[in-house]
Predict the 3D structure of the following.
Amino acid sequence: MSQGAYKITEEFEACLAEYTGAPYVVAVNSCTMALFLAMKWHRVEGRTISIPQHTYMSVPCYIHHAGARVLFLRSPEHLTGPYKLRPFPIWDCALRFTRGMYAAGQTQCLSFSGPRKHLKLGKGGAILTDSAQAARWYRQARYVGRHEVPYHEDQFDMIGWDCYMQPETAARGLLLMSAMPAENPDLCLPYPDLSRFGCYTSGNIFPLYPEDEP
């Protein structure tokens, strides 16, 4: 994967690392899959994850897919900037993209999907981390468990997922990053109240709205 067309994805990751200040960046096909891989790395199975009641619907979907349960916290209809998937150091940063945004110890998940994002790729996301071990795992997990060798030479040792960022998307990202402002304001977008839908809360045994965590 480190040769040929896939080299452009590595170049885009390096560009994102320089811009955000993250030691390691792993590009994937969506923020949803970035969050999912982050949850798998942080071993959320059997745990409860607290998120705002107003957020994008894929977040509770993939909390369940990762083997955890959802606890909705009271939140305004308009979501602004990033939020933490408590109690884990995973941050949904779909509404933030600005220079120097990375904070040590965090796993930040970016979104480049949709017409309102600062970096408009149509589809795409990335994971920011300061863990070399995590970055190696994310790179293998995002590409059906492949190592960075031709597949007919690989020695497979992981059941991975198919969420690699395609070179065409990365190439567009590099082009747009050349004109990216140094600072971008956090986005503020309206989202439905997901706590109203039983598909997200079924099986949960706690109140919908506990005392908000600090």
The chain has a mean pLDDT of 92.
